[in-house]
């Protein structure tokens, strides 16, 4: 059996486990596709070919010896380059971090993926220090959209979106502080999961904003998303924010009926600042789910503003020494925003944090009466590379700062979200399936139902 680009992770794992496909053949197919297409997509910054081959051979040896293999046996995956990969400097999209010593240990989530049988094939391009929504990197060049390579992949996990959207790998890992899983998912036409804050360990990954950072997977199907998510769950003492909750597998629940779920459309802020394609995508999802109730999320615009205050000040605090010692080695756009963050008065940060507690309580009340909120993931399909401005509701606004206008109010309080791709023409766009804290299973069930109905799907890359 030959590994084909359209094979999902679950297909590869089943074929490897039953001996129809070797893990090495699956790995070589991924490495060949990376070699063939990454010159265009620019998704990878590092390809760990020899490590991948060694892991694949070990899996094949275990199968030959009759040993049990994991649920991701032989599945190639890649990670945003802010994850520690043993033997590589953790560059986090920056020039400065390239001077760091190579990491001695893999990030927890890499170790858990490999324990489930997955095969790491490399590290992925990203916006500098994760402070980006475009997927453009001044040091490594932009990762490109697999459906139109003149367009953005979305950031900051742009390489992850590009690699999965371009079918170079079936699964990638990224991070989401204000939308950096959901935005690339939307632009690149793939599925992405931002779990509840604290659900997945961030140990041995380079931080951006500790109180907002999440790690999570990208995939081309909901089943693959659940497979990866389940493999990575579990407490980790190496991340102080990681939950002590036990494993709560979602894969066995995917096909459960959703008729008992109360689904509502997010109103107010989430129905403003949108292009027609975002309206169309939300409308299709709402119709398929029979959702007619509109719920206003109170002060969502203020939540976005408060998220910005916390982001820029925590980010500035993290990078203050680097800003003083090596200011010219930053992307100027990132540097200037961090410098601005260092000058925000403490009183504003205090107000943002107090508002955050109020806003969390308001959303908790909403989720007493509903199970799922649906909202746009991005205001538009992928803009052109280098595009500076776009027009939102008649106002000319900067692209970089406003792509996350609908994601920031959600990650601000750590809610779990599955971004689902609606395959519009000529470009796909994502919709957020938002659930109550710790209910990733609910969001994934709804995403799976939509996928089974054919409303959402990851289109084949059109730009390769």
From TrEMBL:
Biased segments, Basic and acidic residues type: 139-150
The record's section on InterPro entries has: Amidase (IPR000120), Amidase_dom (IPR023631), AS_sf (IPR036928), Carboxybiuret_hydro_AtzE (IPR014087)
**SUPFAM superfamilies in UniProt:** Amidase signature (AS) enzymes
Does the record bear Transferase in its keywords? yes
Gene3D superfamilies attached to this UniProt entry: Amidase signature (AS) domain (3.90.1300.10)
Q: Which GO terms describe its molecular function?
A: transferase activity
Q: Which UniProt keywords apply?
A: Transferase
- Which residue ranges does the record annotate as region Disordered? 139-161
Q: Does the keyword Transferase apply?
A: yes
Residues annotated as domain Amidase: 26-441
Tell me the protein's name.
Aspartyl-tRNA(Asn)/glutamyl-tRNA(Gln) amidotransferase subunit A
């Amino acid at each position: 059996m030959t590994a084909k680009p359209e094979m999902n992770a679950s297909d590869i794992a089943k074929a490897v486990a039953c001996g129809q496909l070797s893990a090495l053949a699956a790995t070589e197919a991924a490495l060949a596709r990376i070699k063939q297409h990454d010159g265009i997509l620019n998704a990878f910054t590092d390809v760990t070919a020899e490590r991948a081959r060694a892991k694949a051979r070990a899996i094949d040896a275990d199968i030959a010896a009759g040993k049990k293999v994991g649920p991701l046996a032989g599945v190639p995956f890649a990670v945003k380059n802010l994850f520690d990969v043993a033997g590589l400097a953790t560059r986090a999209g920056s020039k400065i971090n390239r001077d760091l010593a190579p990491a001695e240990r893999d990030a927890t989530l890499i170790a858990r993926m490999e324990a489930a049988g997955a095969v790491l094939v490399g590290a992925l391009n990203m916006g500098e220090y994760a402070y980006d929504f475009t997927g453009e990197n001044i040091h490594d060049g932009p990762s490109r959209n697999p459906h139109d390579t003149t367009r953005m992949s979305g950031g900051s996990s742009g390489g992850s979106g590009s690699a999965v959207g371009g079918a170079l790998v079936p699964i990638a890992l990224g991070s989401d502080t204000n939308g950096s899983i959901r935005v690339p998912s939307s632009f690149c036409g793939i599925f992405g999961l931002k779990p509840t804050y604290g659900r997945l360990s961030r140990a041995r990954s380079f931080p951006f904003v500790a109180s907002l950072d999440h790690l999570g997977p990208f995939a081309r199907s909901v089943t693959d998303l659940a497979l990866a998510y389940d493999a990575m769950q579990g407490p980790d003492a190496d991340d102080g924010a990681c939950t002590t909750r036990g494993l709560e597998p979602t894969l066995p629940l995917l096909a459960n009926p959703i008729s008992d779920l109360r689904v509502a459309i997010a109103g107010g802020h989430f129905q403003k600042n949108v292009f027609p394609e975002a309206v169309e995508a939300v409308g299709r999802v709402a119709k398929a789910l029979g959702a007619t109730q509109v719920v206003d999320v109170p002060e969502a615009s203020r939540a976005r503003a408060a998220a910005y205050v916390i982001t820029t000040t925590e980010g500035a605090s993290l990078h203050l020494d680097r800003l003083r010692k090596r200011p010219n080695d930053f992307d100027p756009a990132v540097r200037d925003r961090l410098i601005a963050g260092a000058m925000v008065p403490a009183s504003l940060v205090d107000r943002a944090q107090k508002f955050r507690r109020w806003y969390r309580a308001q959303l908790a009340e909403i989720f007493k009466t509903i199970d799922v909120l649906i909202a746009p993931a991005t205001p538009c399909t992928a803009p052109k590379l280098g595009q500076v401005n776009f027009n939102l509701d008649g106002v000319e606004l900067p692209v970089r700062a406003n792509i996350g206008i609908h994601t920031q109010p959600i990650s601000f309080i750590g809610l779990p979200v599955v971004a689902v791709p609606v395959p519009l023409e000529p470009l796909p766009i994502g919709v957020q399936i938002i659930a109550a804290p710790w209910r990733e299973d609910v969001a994934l069930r709804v995403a799976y139902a939509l996928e089974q109905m054919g409303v959402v799907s990851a289109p084949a890359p059109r730009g390769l």
